[in-house]
Amino acid sequence: MTSPDSTKTKAPLAERLIFSKRPLVMLLMLIATIVLAWQATQLKVAASFEKMIPTNHEYVVNFLENRADLTSLGNVVRVTVQTKEGDIFDAEYLETLKQVTDKAFYIPGVNRPEMASLWTANTRWTSVTEEGLEGGQVIPATYNGDAESIAQVRQNVELSGQIGRLVGNDFKSTIVYLPLLEINPETGNRLDYKEFSERIEAELRNEFNSDKIEIRVTGFAKIVGDLIEGATQVVMFFGIAVLITLVMLFFYSRSVKSTLATLACSITAVIWQLGLLNAMGMGLDPYSMLVPFLVFAIGVSHGVQIVGAIAHKQGEGHNRLDSARLAFRGLYIAGLTALVSDGFGFATLMVIDIPVIRDLAIAASVGVAVIILTNLVLLPLIMSYTGVDEKAVAKLQQDESGSNKLWHFLAGFAQAKMAKGALAVALALLAVGLWGNANVQIGDLDKGAPELRADSRYNLDNAYVTDNYSTSTDVFVVMVETEMDGCIKYNTLAAVDLFQWTIEQVPGVQSSISLADRSKFVISAYSEGDLKWNALNRNQFVLNGTISGMNLSDGLFSSDCSFMPIIVFLEDHKADTLKRVVAAAEDFIAKNDTGDAVFKLAAGNAGIEAATNEVVERAQTEMLIWVYGVVAILVWLAFRSVRTVICIIAPLALTSLLCSALMVALGIGVKVATLPVIALGVGIGVDYGIYIYGKLEEYLKEGMPFADAYFETLKSTGKAVVFTGLTLGIGVATWAFSPIKFQADMGLLLTFMFLWNMVGAVVFLPALAYFLDRRGEKA
């Protein structure tokens, strides 16, 4: 039995500092937990439009520079008022539409001058008569609900050009169009999408839905609102994960003390992380809502290693304090290396130039940093007082003295025959992974909002709009800049007209509108509606006259006529559709630089989605290089062996490639929601390899044969790795039941990565080490 004095004389500085002042260190951590728990209660779940887009991408920069002239083409919500009986030309329906319009007008965050419905003054009709052009509001001030007024409304709608835009093609619904402000003018703060979505539900959908009326809502703000609503269920999944972990921890350790201590320290890490995020002025969004669970999972992973090591030391006859000190001494280098690798791995997400992912990177890195204190320091201190139950220690000794078939089987991978077989399987899997990596697609692969399930209320609403309106909700906007008063010049309009004809030939494009269309319509109207005059006129005076009666609120040109958008309506915003549209637009711009007009990409939700896809595609490779490069350097610094680096990193890389193949098989694209999964999976998976190789190295230095050393490693560290991999996999698998599709996708992918990283650590790592480590060759 090692004496306490002997233990202390061998102790490194970190151990002496921590264990010599146990009560003080634990008191300080208790105070920190109380303070940060209070901070955590102040944390808010929110989202920002600008935080979810790549603000430094050329397309988005162009959009933000011209945002004042694109107020109706950026962040927009469409409220569709559908009648279940008859059509919209009904007094009761039109009164309901008026009430919906009035209610929507007063919802904070709505850009009121730009909103549109049949009841707003900016929705007008135009008609060609013998005396020239006539026009007015679609629903005039004289409307009184009688049959004559309704007949007039029907005629005005048919003359308005709004059929397929604000009015359904089947005349069974109309849209209330709500452009949004990024800043809530009533509070001066960023628009709270959760509150906005809740008001839409309470004041519009819940109030007006009936057996005659169906309210449908689409738009970015509603997607985010639904995501935040669904993301709150993460608390439920977190609770389920804690219960699963509690049961499996007790089954693993058979010790109530160590089970509760491990859980308490891991939950403390989550509390510290959330509290620090609030203290830093940050919050949680739908994408970073899952990070606390990952922090909890990493904490449990390291806690299991520590508790297992303490149980071993107690089994060797050490008292509780010395067992905790010796366990800390044996694991703090490997644990610190693993956690620092995790932190830097997560930090590599910062290379992705999308604010919401950078916030996720910060949240994950902060979480890993606090685990160093809560699980590597606090847990051994707690266990130094409580120790592991004697029954649990006896059970551990009984298990290790017995013959475990699983450990004997796995130890075979540290011998020539099974090692060769494992590497042959790994090569076959590598081919599958390379195929998957070559075929994985960037961006969304489904219609509607792929963040939500296909049968979600939002996607059903979106499908209704797509099926019943000529202009879809997927809008790609090309911005045209020219000199002052240049938007109405013939050369400019001719270039715009040619661009529209070109882009409308691209598969996936429904239609497009611009000032050129309106000018051609007015010229035709001046000629008694003769279609042969539906063309641009070279006479500048004629062209000038075509915009004299136009309303700036139509959004087809700026007040000084130096800017105009070309609005392209797409069938969907799938990755392939966006690539085709962007390629066609860029090709046109490259071939048609006349100097009269500058065409710039791109605004609209589809334009921003295209920019996001480009950023994700570029960042994917860069992030992988950084995450594997940083982790490899840290592993090398810990072990000072290139062979060790290969043994630990290669199984992780194989898992990443297989994850790509799984994404192809499941129809999941690489996008904002799924790109972080690889970094998160690598960050957690590297822990397995570091702990196993660290313990294997320890036994090899004692002179054990390679296979025997690995067998002993499996009985201690390997057992903990297998348990952790299974526990984390089962816990994350519960996300598959989330109403949020991207959370379910992340759950499936992380479950796969947790399990395969575990398999890689206990199967492929020893097989590689057998051939790469000279001590393996001598075995």
The helical percent reads 55-70%
Q: Main beta sheet: strand number and arrangement?
A: 4 strands, antiparallel
Q: Rg to the nearest angstrom?
A: 32 Å
DSSP strand (E) fraction? 5-15%
CATH architecture of the domain at 1-41 and 233-402: Up-down Bundle
Characterise the protein shown here:
The chain is an alpha+beta fold and 779 residues long. It has helices at 4-9, 13-19, 22-41, 58-65, 91-105, 147-160, 193-208, 220-231, 234-253, 256-279, 291-315, 320-347, 355-386, 390-401, 405-411, 416-439, 457-468, 490-503, 515-526, 540-546, 575-591, 604-639, 642-666, 675-701, 706-733, 741-772, 774-777, and strands at 76-83, 124-129, 132-137, 173-179, 213-219, 474-481, 509-513, 563-570, 598-603. A 4-stranded antiparallel sheet has the order 7-8-6-9. A 3-stranded antiparallel sheet has the order 4-1-5, sandwiched between helices. 51% of the residues are buried. Pfam families: MMPL. The chain crosses the membrane at residues 24-41, 234-252, 259-277, 289-311, 331-354, 360-382, 421-438, 623-639, 646-668, 674-694, 720-737, 749-772.
